[in-house]
Amino acid sequence: MQADRAYFGKKDYQQLKVIQRMVHDLNIPIEIVPCETVRESDGLAMSSRNVYLKPDERRAATVLYRALCAGRDAILAGERDGKKVKELVEKVIATEPLVKPEYVDVADAESLEPLTTLKGEVLISLAAHVGAARLIDNITVVVSE
Q1: Are 37 and 130 in contact (CB under 8 A)?
Q2: Sequence-distant (≥ 6) Cβ neighbours of residue 68 within 8 angstroms
Q3: Do the beta carbons of residue 98 and residue 130 sit within 8 Å?
Q4: Are both 43 and 32 inside the same structural domain?
Q5: What is the residue range of 86's domain?
Q6: Do 22 and 1 fall within a single domain?
Q7: Together in a domain, 58 and 45
Q8: Same domain as 110, residue 81
Q9: Which helix or strand (DSSP H or E) is residue 79 part of?
Q10: pLDDT band at 1 (very low <50, low <70, confident <90, very high)
Q11: Is the whole-model pTM more than 0.85?
Q12: 114 in Cβ contact with 82 (< 8 Å)
């Protein structure tokens, strides 16, 4: 018997979207079920990579979720300039010297295309190195017209 469902976490949102597109384009008879990111009480996304974090790095890593929330909150407060949201997220991350950002993107949540003017469902995603760990995280927000 073939599986009729596959579960993918939203933590790796880009991977989820690629899999959804592939299943659609290849007409594979399986339902892709997105699963919410599970977070620690301080907001850090749960990941097997978190075990590589030393205690001070673990504390520093929480800046990633705070940065995403700052971007989300700016959008919810009316910011529609993707570059400004990206710069805000980068500025929050920069407050933690132990966190070395790899990228911050502000994109359309469906197409993953970068957005200059924010509209529809927006994905704010990032990757950063904290000690020996490369951490990824994201948040989506719906822009009200």
Answers
A1: no
A2: 89, 124, 126, 137, 138, 139
A3: yes
A4: no
A5: 39-142
A6: yes
A7: yes
A8: yes
A9: none
A10: confident
A11: yes
A12: yes
Measured distance CA(64)–CA(52) in Å, rounded = 16
**99 three-state secondary structure:** strand
Check whether residue 26 and residue 69 sit in a common domain: no
**Residue carrying structure tokens 């469906």:** 110
**Which residue type sits at 37?**
T
- Does an H or E element contain 100, and which? strand 99-108
CATH of the domain at 93: 3.30.1300.10
* Spatial CB neighbours of 109, under 8 Å, sequence gap ≥ 6: 13, 120, 121, 122, 123, 140
Classify strands 121-130 and 133-142 as parallel, antiparallel or unpaired. Answer: antiparallel
For 21-52, the pLDDT digits (tens) are 999 999 999 999 999 999 999 999 999 999 99
d(CA 108, CA 51): 32
HSE-CB at 33 with a 13 A cutoff on CA atoms is: 6
